[in-house]
Amino acid sequence: MAEEHKQIDALTGTATTGHEWDGLRELNTPLPRWWLWTFYLTIIWSIGYWVVYPAWPLVTNATQGLFGYHSRAAVVEDINALHAMRGPMMQQLATASTAEIAASPQLIDFARAQGRVAFADNCAPCHGAGGGGAKGYPNLNDDDWLWGGKLADIEQTIRYGVRSGNDKGHQGNMPPFKDVLKPAEMSSVADYVRSLSGLSTEAGVDLKAGQKVFADNCAVCHGDAGKGNREVGAPNLTDKIWLYGSDKATIVQGLQQGRGGVMPVWEGRLSEPAIKALAVYVYGFGGGEK
Amino acid sequence: MTQLEELVRQSEVKAAPPPAPPGGDDIDEIPLYAARRKIYPQSVQGTFRRIKWIVLLVTLGIYYILPFVRWDRGPNAPSQAVLIDFPNRRFYFFFIELWPQEVYYLTGLLILAAIGLFLMNALAGRVWCGYLCPQTVWTDLYMAIERFTEGDRREHMKRESQPWTVETYARKGAKHFLWLMVAWWTGGAWVLYFADAPTLVKDLATGNAPFVAYAWIGILTVTTYTLAGHMREQVCLYMCPWPRIQAALTDEYALNVTYRYDRGEPRMSAKKAEQLKAQGERVGDCVDCLQCVHVCPTGIDIRQGSQLGCIQCGLCIDACNTIMAKLGRPRNLIAYDTDLNIKERLEGRPSTYKPIRWRTALYAAIIAVAGGIMIYTLATRGSEGISVIHDRNPMFVRLSDGSLRNGYTIRIVNKQLKSRDFVIAVDGLPSTLIDFVGLPPRADGRQLVAVGPDQTKEVRILVTDYSNTPPAASTSVLFSLIDVNSGEVAQVRDHFFGPEGK
Ligand code: SF4
Ligand code: SF4
């Protein structure tokens, strides 16, 4: 080692570190003093950190630091501060009706912001991030509402759900017809239902027969004209919106095994302000009814 | 090899004698640190010093005074010519008002600054360092204060080498006091760019200013005092990345402060030169008086050739010219020149300076294009703006009657200092209807959106295509924002989506 260190760069007269790369040698230039001191200071500073903050892992715990600082406690504090800050507005959300919220310029902005978060946390898994829905899960942006699309209707549905087991929730479902109707009947009624919303049917299909099956079995819920019934959540079959799909196979499948999607109860699981905020937010998707 | 070249070769070695390895003969004892060699730059007079004084006065003058310059913008806007208004997210620069959406002007400025630096470098090396760099300017001011309180080089060194007297302490005290005053005022001026200056001065004086103002003044006082008073050339040598970058960017045509060794060597005292000359021998013009070294703010010897430590301030040129004038020898033994030129002259060719080269032309072109674009967009930008975000989920909605609907979030910007009413129109679809979510429809069917003075407003609109022919997967649509009173229009293109192939 010492031998290597003895090499002196001819041009500058400075000693080299002895390291060589393809004939290039590194000069051993001492650091400026202030630089070195800055470096030492950072080391001392870090020791201060060990003392003041929790730092060293022990077997079951860690050193606690001088002032008992705890990042978890800091988060809790932040959250509490946030709640305190939002408190008054939350209070108003809790007491005002959804109609009042929608009519107040300050409240509605706050409610929408709260609703956006609550929706992403609770509703988006089924209805999609923007309420776009999916097969079997209604699109909340369109103008078709199985159980009503007024602000109060939406609030009611969120609160008590659909086929949720709650007394105040929406009831009624599409029963399975596989033991009631013959395959040919199901086929003809499916064709008839498609024709109701203007979808094409195969040539030579007997729509009259389908209409008869419909009148005998389906009109009870869906109405004579197939316009649906919100009391029991029977969809309007004459519009262009199909919750499960409009192809014949899907319709026949629905006839065979019935349909009955479930929307859970949110009252009790979400706070009062959150439910109202959600109703206002969902209404704002653009599908809500006046 | 010519005789002159041979001479130069010898003198080059002589000009840079290998310093003794640190720690004497036992080179294993390399010190852990190098104590800073204190530099006592001597005062100097001449062209470049004068330029430096002018630049110093102008730049510092602008920096300290600019916050107090007023600019009348009417009742709803601040009347400060240059203001960075963080709470309201605005930047005011005389007649220009920039919004957060327009930060790309900042990008443009950074491009201009970077290429400007490159151009400067291609023309004349590190002139930025020598004249304009804040570190240089403040250090220069601090050195002037130092000379004022502690005397010029010789007096200062003498006083420090002798036992310190009350006077020494008094002079040092005065120096640090003045340094701190300058540092404090530097920090003070900085915060004035972020608030109404006269009000803030009053608040600062009465202790009512926000804590951050005091904190920033404190930070900048400490950094100015440390960097300009104590670190000085070490910032240029150890901390600043620019010397490294510029070394990679420069070429042999760039002017640098250069010791013309072809003329200066062999150096010798004036007396000896006389004798040798009488004997008909060739002598150099440098009399080894070390004036160029004594005036150098970074403490280097320019006669060792161009080097990282040189900030191109030209003070050694002034110093040497003074000596040359005294000796009756031609000026500019040290000058802004290039090694290439020296070589040309040694080979008997005239020296040239080529300011127009591919490199400089390219830099100038980039500057012209970037600057031109900025000026054009600044001059033609409207006082209203519209930006559109299409709903992503769902991309489109089918309504019960089969028509298609797309949702958009629209941000309207009103840069005027009065409230304005806008309507929004959508073109590109056969038959459309626009709904504003949350805004009650008006009787005449037109939906007005009011935006307050100097504000933005976000509205959500639903565009429904009622045509019976469903649009293709994606149709280009044009959103127009129209000021109903003045008729001014801002437009932006976006898309209307539909189910593909159905
Ligand atoms: S060598 Fe000359 S130009 Fe370079 S920093 Fe020193 S005085 Fe300035
Ligand atoms: S000031 Fe000029 S003459 Fe004096 S040492 Fe420097 S280069 Fe030589």
Helix tally of chain A?
A: 10
Largest sheet of chain B: 5 strands, antiparallel
Count the strands of chain B? Answer: 15
Class from secondary-structure proportions of chain B? alpha+beta
* CATH H-tier superfamily of the domain at 92-169 and 270-286 in chain A: Cytochrome c-like domain
How many beta-strand segments of chain A?
3
CATH architecture of the domain at 92-169 and 270-286 in chain A: Orthogonal Bundle
Shape field of chain B: elongated
Give the averaged pLDDT of chain A, no decimals: 88
What value does the average pLDDT of chain B take? 86
What is the straight-line distance between the termini of chain A? Answer: 89 Å
Tally of separate domains of chain B: 3
How would a crystallographer describe the biggest sheet of chain A? 2 strands, antiparallel
Domain 4Fe-4S ferredoxin-type (chain B): 276-305
Protein name (chain B): Cytochrome c oxidase accessory protein CcoG
Pfam families (chain B): Fer4_18, Fer4_5, FixG_C
GO molecular function (chain B): 4 iron, 4 sulfur cluster binding; metal ion binding
What does this structure look like?
The complex is a heterodimer of chains A (290) and B (502). Chain A has helices spanning 2-5, 33-52, 71-95, 98-103, 105-127, 151-160, 183-196, 207-222, 248-257, 272-283; strands at residues 16-21, 24-27, 31-32. In chain A, 29% of the residues are buried. Chain A is elongated and about 110 Å long. Among the domains of chain A are: 92-169 and 270-286, Cytochrome c-like domain (Cytochrome Bc1 Complex, Chain D, domain 2, Orthogonal Bundle); 183-257, Cytochrome Bc1 Complex, Chain D, domain 2 (Orthogonal Bundle), CATH 1.10.760.10. A two-stranded antiparallel sheet of chain A has the order 1-2. Chain A is mainly alpha-helical. Chain B is an alpha+beta fold. Chain B folds into three domains: 39-105 and 124-240, no CATH class; 256-346, no CATH class; 384-497, Immunoglobulin-like. In chain B, 44% of the residues lie in helices and 17% in strands. Chain B starts with a helix and ends in a 5-residue tail after the last strand. Mean pLDDT of chain B is 86; it is low at 10-27. The chains are: A mainly alpha (290), B alpha+beta (502). Chain A binds chain B through residues 2, 5-6, 8, 10-15, 28-36, 108, 128-133, 139, 141-144, 198, 236, 239-241, 284-287, and chain B through 18-22, 27-28, 30-36, 231, 234, 238, 391-395, 397-402, 405, 407, 435, 437-438, 460, 462. β3 of chain A pairs parallel with β1 of chain B, so a sheet runs across the interface. The structure holds iron/sulfur cluster (2 copies).
